[in-house]
Amino acid sequence: MKNLFFISGFVFLMVQSCIIITRSERKVDDGSTSLTKSDSLAIHPFSILDYNATKNYSIPSEIKFQQIDAEQVNQLIVQQRFTWIMLGASWCPVSKNALIKFNKIIDSFHSDSIRLIIISQDFNIPVLQQELFDAHFPFITYLLNPDKYGRDELHKQENFAKDLKWDLPLRAFKEGGVPMNIIVDSKKQLKYLFGGSRITVDSITKYTGLAKLNKELH
What we know:
Helix content is about 35%, strand content about 15%. The chain has helices at about 1-15, 35-40, 70-75, 95-105, 125-135, 145-150, 155-165, 200-210, and strands at about 45, 65-70, 80-90, 115-120, 140-145, 180-185, 190-195. Strand 3, helix 4 and strand 4 (about 115-120) form a beta-alpha-beta unit. Strands 1-2-5-4-3-6-7 form a seven-stranded mixed sheet, sandwiched between helices. The chain has one domain (about 1-210): Glutaredoxin. Helix 3 (about 70-75) crosses helix 7 (about 155-165) and helix 4 (about 95-105) runs parallel beside helix 5 (about 125-135). It is an alpha/beta fold.
């Protein structure tokens, strides 16, 4: 585990990501206090029943979200052998590009072996909808619950990491840098932690032991 933390900490420091130096591009408030009526209609309570639901959207505004907290995340991770959680934000261009890249990477594995879960720190609904639409992400996307973790993104992510109780290196979550990625198994064992978007199919295979799909046979 120490080796894992060393590797992930090194990757976190070295890769491109949106961290505190971009604070001028984001507000203290995550946007949850200034939602329009149409924005609010796109946000729903968490439901485990929607975990496997997929949809091909015809326009961005069709995309809906659910608010989520650590207890509810723990309900999700037991559904698969491995879960890859990406914490992102609408204001981060690296997060936007990661959505597209990660959605393609996850397609290289059996759908019942690992799931990519997207959780946004902020509530800029129209921008998030457009980014998810461009990435062709078919599953429900989640919004980090501001009532439980606060509205300041500088601290929101760390508060969430503490609440997960997964023995995570909390220093990696300070300042709310995105995208932040956690790969965990169904028993809450951390397999890989990295910030930014520099990850490959081979990286996932290395840290999970999952076999890649042979695209010629599927």
